[in-house]
């Protein structure tokens, strides 16, 4: 990892603040952050630098929304996610910087495309599930299990390769009928557990080392004000406009990585 300039550090600091904001306000907005990190740093190393920052944001989100998680949904997802993480780790064993950069760009464009397609037929709003109840009708059915496994494997792979599991998880939770607080609480616990489980893989692959941790120590400070701002804005934000900005920023970030 080369020495970064003051201007590059400022860009990474803003992206770190956006991580905090996304964890407490708009899940999935940190796809912009991973595009920024992959553009400023070598793409492969950027995933290791970003991971501790994401975990810091996850910790804050769990503290804020811990009571709103729906554990049956999480337990249904985790086995498939584990398989996806292992597959992603195997991919990272042989992938060079160009392959990782191309993969991140393609994943970002794919997730943005799926999100745009799904928004053409938005789901009918459903009551937020009470603790201990299933949010998705028929979730225990064969179709529900297949859907959970499909999203879980894709989410595990994308989060290991590019820290880009947010859009996959968002699509799954939206299709399951989660409302805002249940959505944020379930996402918070999901990513805290999954991102923490990725640390040994990232260390073993050489993605996290002393130099990356020193940079993280400086950048993680910016996660806190971002999370505070997100918590203040979550009930006031124009969700539709912000989601559109995030989607198109993600598209631009993905194109930048592919054409770099």
TrEMBL record:
Residues 120-143 are annotated as: Disordered. It comes from the Bacteria. Keywords: Cell membrane, Membrane, Transmembrane, Transmembrane helix, Transport. The chain crosses the membrane at residues 48-65, 77-94, 151-175, 181-201, 213-229. It is found in: Cell membrane. InterPro entries: TM_pro_TauE-like, TSUP. The keyword Transmembrane applies. It holds the Pfam family TauE. Belongs to the 4-toluene sulfonate uptake permease (TSUP) (TC 2.A.102) family. This is Probable membrane transporter protein. It comes from Streptomyces flavidovirens. The lineage of its organism: Bacteria, Bacillati, Actinomycetota, Actinomycetes, Kitasatosporales.
